[in-house]
Design goal:
The protein is α+β, with helices and mostly antiparallel strands and about 290 residues long. It has 2 domains: about 170 residues, no CATH class; about 60 residues, Orthogonal Bundle (Arc Repressor Mutant, subunit A), CATH 1.10.10. It contains 11 helices and 9 strands. Pfam families: DUF4388. This is DUF4388 domain-containing protein. It comes from Pseudanabaena yagii GIHE-NHR1.
């Protein structure tokens, strides 16, 4: 069973959060026939196991991680046969190279950062891509360092590394908005110092502009921090809404309430709907308990 859809309808952080919370195993493919930034096709594969990102790449030949290792000069002619044997056996490449003494723990961490976090960071620059998640697929162990991160935490770390926020600029919370802490208990996500400070002030009372002044953080940077906390589900944005009631007398308010005998409440602003095709795929996916 596969889930497909458009990134314009279902954002990457939402996809990662769904895969994380559902502890899904499979391959997520992001494809854009013509990337608006480069004019060239864009393709990325993200492999997950039980909701954790274990590998990423732009190829399916099981040699992406090996190429990264070779580019850094960590494979010599003497140990190349061992590398090729491990690739053919399709065993976790990073851990096996470590057990053979060819790679060190710090090198594995660097490889994971380059292979996964850098790839995920590039995904946030895709404006009009399509996604497809296929479950019950064999994971390419030769692409795995042996390290992994929860998909939601991968989103958080990827956004921290993001240098160009132009694509996401329109999605940043408004400076006049406030933040409200959704979770009352401690989160398993590892926050940096600024993220922790902003979350501690997310009481629905202080808007982002005042928060930036209090923390002495440039407003654009604080908006980015708030966006990170929002997309990983720790806080929610509360817009500054002018209810237009400042000139309304109490008597008029009572009259308006008493005059409505329908018993109905005013509906909330309409939320953007997810495409019916995606919902059908999602329902089918859950029914099959993938």
């Amino acid at each position: 069973m596969a889930i497909t859809g458009s990134l314009s309808e279902f954002s990457l952080p939402e996809i990662f959060q769904f895969l994380d919370q559902g502890q899904k195993t499979g391959i997520l493919t992001i494809r854009d026939p013509q990337d608006l930034r480069t004019g060239k096709p864009f393709l990325r594969h993200i492999w997950l196991h039980s909701g954790r990102v274990v590998a990423a790449g732009d190829r399916l030949d099981n040699r992406g991680l090996a190429r990264l290792i070779e580019q850094r000069g960590w494979i010599t002619e003497a140990n190349r046969p061992q590398l090729e044997r491990l690739i053919q056996e399709n065993v976790p490449l990073g851990l096996n190279l470590k057990s053979l003494g060819i790679l060190q723990p710090d090198q594995l961490k660097l490889l994971f950062s380059v292979q996964v976090l850098r790839q995920v960071c590039s995904l946030f620059q895709v404006e009009t891509g399509q996604f497809r998640f296929e479950a019950k697929t064999d994971l390419p162990k030769s692409e795995m360092t042996g390290l992994s991160l929860p998909a939601t935490e991968t989103t958080l770390m990827g956004l921290r590394s993001l240098k160009d926020w132009k694509v996401l600029q329109s999605k940043l919370p408004d400076p006049s908005s406030t933040l409200f802490n959704i979770l009352s208990d401690e989160s398993s996500l590892r926050l940096d110092a600024h993220e922790t400070q902003v979350r501690n002030l997310a009481d629905g009372m202080m808007n982002l502009k005042k928060m930036a002044e209090k923390l002495q953080i440039p407003l654009p940077k604080l908006q980015q921090i708030a966006f990170r906390l929002i997309v990983v589900g720790l806080v929610e944005e509360v817009p500054d809404i002018d209810m237009g009631m400042s000139n309304t007398s109490n008597e008029e308010e009572i009259t308006d309430i008493e005059g409505d005998t329908s018993g109905s409440l005013t509906s909330a602003p309409t939320r953007t709907e997810i495409s019916s095709a995606f919902l059908q795929s999602l329902v089918g996916f859950l029914q099959h308990k993938v």
